[in-house]
Specification:
The protein has 460 residues and is α/β, with parallel strands linked by helices. The protein is built from 13 helices and 17 strands. The strands form 3 sheets. Strands 2-3-1-4-8-7-5-6 form an 8-stranded mixed beta sheet. It catalyses: guanosine(10) in tRNA + S-adenosyl-L-methionine = N(2)-methylguanosine(10) in tRNA + S-adenosyl-L-homocysteine + H(+).
Length: 460
């Protein structure tokens, strides 16, 4: 049986993509706005319907001003596994909480939302008519109602086995929609300046939300590329800054990444991207710099570091070096010249990134980055650790049958001290990091095997 509704219970309607990213995003945003993730369900799995306890409607509205993983939120008035249970639940909801939205001077409409099933108009009207026991005194207005109410029916996740009756039925007052439209309005397809690895708009906003980016923060990307992650943070009112080792990318020079365009134009750069969205005032600067040798003075500068390091697939992993580091057999350059083509192992890159974050983040600041993994060999022990950083979330996005990347979110919980810089060398977890160094070879090995398999099957 459904339990009677209590105060501050909300129904969250989630989007059915990036499923692993949804929970960390909602938890991070609730924490940002003074709430706490308190659920009345033990687990959500893949369900689009989440029941949450949120302290106030203001926090619920602020949550929806940020989330790209949720479609809408409702103040939950009733819930049941059958129409009878739903009606019983609604009759137990305090009338005094309903009255402000149902009085005679108000206008309203009722919508029917079904998941994994389509209802006829006749069936929808029948469900609306069955709610006539509710104390509605206002007038119906289908175009511009003051209040919108929804019946939401859940028919499970299997499109090949749709039940006759819903598993759960919810009724609630619509509060606000999420920010799903940002995925389209900030689409990379419409962006002025892009590269081979420009981050998908939806994932960029998810990363900014995982990083708890807020107004007047300073957000840094040490592998800035074409600045896609800066755009998402600037949209939320943060001042953005970045570095990259690639001179041509930082200055918008060289060959274009767009089809049918040979060279980049004079106005294709990161600043122009922010200008395109009216965000130029949040742009601090972007410098050509080596992430392995940061030139920052000691101090805590950043509220968040949000980045997508190169994996050595479409973008090479490089760092600057000195004459002593040049392998034997390579002709030495003049002493004044610093080569920029030395290899930069992925394990070293991530350890440098964690050390840099531990040194430069404010306490409570977050590091959000992508970690590429070879799926058959992946274990949680492969995720780099640092004594100053606490792991908040670890979400997988599959790249192929044998590779994926994991979105790692960490929070600075301890002030950085000199001995923390090399603490990973004493850790039992250090050896598994080395597995990242062969990611490129394993990636292409898997691609070669897949192509050979496809060719063989096509010949049979």
């Amino acid at each position: 049986m459904a339990t009677p509704c209590t105060l501050n219970r909300y129904l969250l309607l989630m989007a059915q993509e990036h499923l692993e990213f949804r929970m960390p995003e909602i938890k991070s945003l609730l924490s940002l706005f003074g709430g706490q993730f308190a659920s009345t369900q033990e687990t959500y799995g893949k369900s689009p319907f989440w029941i949450l306890s949120i302290p106030s409607e203001d926090i619920a509205r602020n949550l929806m001003k940020r989330t790209v993983c949720a479609k809408a939120i409702f103040e939950l008035w009733g819930h049941g596994q059958s129409p009878e249970e739903l009606y019983s639940s609604l009759k137990n909801y305090p009338v005094e909480k309903m009255v402000p939205f149902l009085h005679s001077n108000s206008t309203y409409k009722i919508k029917i939302h079904t998941f994994n099933k389509t209802l006829t108009q006749e069936e929808k009207i029948k469900r609306i008519d069955a709610l006539e026991f509710l104390p509605f005194e206002g007038k119906v207005n289908l175009k511009k109602p003051q209040h919108v109410f929804s019946v939401l029916e859940d028919y499970g996740l299997d499109p090949n086995c749709i039940p006759e009756n819903p598993h759960n039925i919810y009724f609630g007052r619509w509060i606000a929609d999420g920010q799903r439209e940002l995925i389209e309005s900030y689409s990379v397809k419409k962006r002025h300046f892009i590269g081979n690895t420009s981050m998908d708009a939806g994932l960029s906003f998810i990363m900014a939300n995982h990083g708890k980016v807020k107004e007047n923060d300073i957000v840094f990307d040490p592998f800035v590329g074409t600045g896609g992650l800066l755009i998402a943070s600037a949209h939320f009112g943060a001042y953005v800054y970045g570095t990259d080792i690639d001179y041509n990318t930082v200055h918008g020079l060289g060959k274009a990444s767009r089809k049918n365009q040979k060279w980049r134009g004079p106005d294709e750069n990161i600043r122009a991207n922010l200008r395109q969205y009216g965000l130029e005032k949040y742009y601090l600067d972007v410098l050509v710099s080596d992430a392995s040798k940061p030139s920052w003075r000691k101090g805590t500068y950043f509220d968040a570091i949000i980045t997508d390091p190169p994996y050595g697939i479409r973008e090479s992993t490089r760092r600057t070096g000195s004459q002593k580091e040049i392998p034997k057999g390579i002709e030495k350059c003049p002493e004044s010249h610093v080569p920029v083509s030395l290899s930069y192992h992925l394990s070293d890159m991530f350890l440098d990134l964690l050390n840099f974050a531990a040194e430069t983040l404010v306490l409570g600041g977050r590091l959000v980055y992508w970690l590429p993994v070879y799926t058959p060999e992946y274990t949680e022990e492969m995720v780099p650790q640092h004594p100053c950083l606490k792991l908040i979330s670890n979400c997988e996005q599959k790249l192929s049958s044998h590779t994926s990347r994991r979105l790692i979110t960490m929070e600075k919980v301890k002030k950085f001290e000199n001995q923390d810089q090399h603490s990973h060398l004493l850790s039992d977890h250090f050896l598994p990091y080395q597995g990242h160094n062969s990611f490129r070879e394993k990636y292409f090995s898997g691609v070669t095997k897949r192509i050979a398999k496809e060719e063989k099957s096509s010949q049979e």
